[in-house]
Structure formats: C-alpha cells, structure tokens
Design goal:
106 residues, mainly beta, three-stranded antiparallel beta sheet
Length: 106
C-alpha cells in the first residue's frame, strides 16, 4: 500500500495535548505533531541541531508565541514559521482552544 492513515486524536498523547503521528503514519523521516492547547500551555526550550532536524510550525486556531533564539514570534491563525535545526525554540499558547501542526525532518 502506498499510504497510511490515522486520525490524530486516535493516537495516545505523549504529553498533554500533543499528538505525535510519526509512528502511526509509519514515517521514515518526517515527524508530524498536532498540539491542542489552552491559554498558559508552555513547551520546553529545545533544538534539533544534533539530528539536523528543521521544523515548521503552523497555527490553525488561537494565539501562540514561538520563541526562536530568544526572539518572540507572535502567531495568529494561518501563520507559519520555519526554524533552523540548531536554533532554540520554545512554544507558548495564549488563547483557549488553540491548535497547531508541527512538521519536521532532516
């Protein structure tokens, strides 16, 4: 079969509101995460320099701030940001019912 399917909310969340789809979709390189968050949800600062893994963040609904190398990038619905592998990133949501898709790969 040339494709795999899943519903993100059929996947067990690995952290509150975070649905990692890589395994469910049998992805070899691409990681895809759906985040459902309310006001006050905060991620953890990290980078992916050791894996040469860039990420794209797309806010679908709500409000979020992505801090990249200390610079705050405020996101509104429809906004997308690509982050270099070695750059630090930290994500926070400031509206209830926010939803974001994050995709990353080397």
């Amino acid at each position: 079969m040339g494709y795999d399917t899943t519903a993100y909310d059929d996947v067990e969340p690995r952290a509150p509101g975070m649905y990692f789809l890589r395994e469910a979709l049998d992805c070899e390189n691409l990681g895809v995460t759906v985040v459902e968050a309310d006001d006050g949800w905060e991620g953890m600062e990290h980078d992916h320099g050791d894996a040469d893994h860039e990420e794209v963040y797309v806010l679908l609904h709500g409000e979020a701030t992505l801090t990249v190398d200390g610079d705050d990038v405020d996101l509104a619905p429809g906004d997308a940001v690509r982050v270099d592998p070695g750059s630090t990133r930290d994500l926070a949501f400031s509206a209830d019912g926010s939803k974001m898709v994050i995709a990353g790969a080397p």
